[in-house]
Amino acid sequence: MRLSLTVLLVTLALCCYEANAVVCPSFAVDNAAFLWVPDLLYRARLQTYSAPREAVEAKMQVKQCVNGFSTGNKLQIWKALVKILLKCGYEDFQKLLSFVF
């Protein structure tokens, strides 16, 4: 569960930093996809960022760990993420919900 706490703290820091409290929509969608999208589709999503191969592999290794979380634990992370996004003024939740339901 330490990994999920780290992910949430980084999300909070990036989303709600005083100088810029606007949530990047791509960042929000990527976090939702990280929890719910199958590996092959998520890897294809990462390719759109033109990230180095090593970075993609590192993120996929973390995703493999998160894939082992129970659905209940993923939902707890999801709820915390939604609370953070609400606090930061994110509004396009329909796009995020498409990953979960």
The N- and C-terminal alpha carbons lie at a distance of 24 Å
Model regions low in confidence, pLDDT < 50 over at least 5 residues: none
What fraction of the residues are assigned to beta strands by DSSP? under 5%
Q: pLDDT average, as an integer? A: 82
Principal-axis shape equals globular
With helices defined by DSSP (H or I, 4 residues minimum), what is the helix count?
A: 6
Strand element count: 0
Largest sheet: none
H-E order: HHHHHH
Radius of gyration: 13 Å
User: How many domains in all?
Assistant: 1
Q: Name the structural class.
A: mainly alpha
Helix content: over 70%
Explain what the structure shows:
With 101 residues, this protein is mainly α. The protein has one domain (2-100). 74% of the residues lie in helices and 0% in strands. It is globular, with a radius of gyration of 13 Å.
